[in-house]
Amino acid sequence: MRKNKYILLLTITLAVIALILLLNNSKSTIKADFAVDDLSSVTKIFMSDKNNNKVTIKRLDEGKWQVNDKYPARLDGMKTLLETISGLQVKEPVTIAGRNTIIKWLAAKSVKVEIYQTVYRIDLFNKIKLFPNEKCTKVYYVGDETQDNQGTFMLLEGSDEPFVVYVPGFRGYLSPRYSALETDWRKRVIFELKIGAIKSVKIEYSSTPESSFEISRYDKDFEIKLLSSNTIMNGFDTSKVVEYMNSFSNIGFEAFLNDLKKSDIDSITAHKPMAILTVIDIAGKTTTLKAYLKLAAFGTVDEITNKPITIDRDRFYGMINDDKDFVLLQYFIFTPVLQPSSYFRINVDKKSKV
Question: Where are the domains of the chain?
Answer without folding.
Answer: 31-184, 189-344
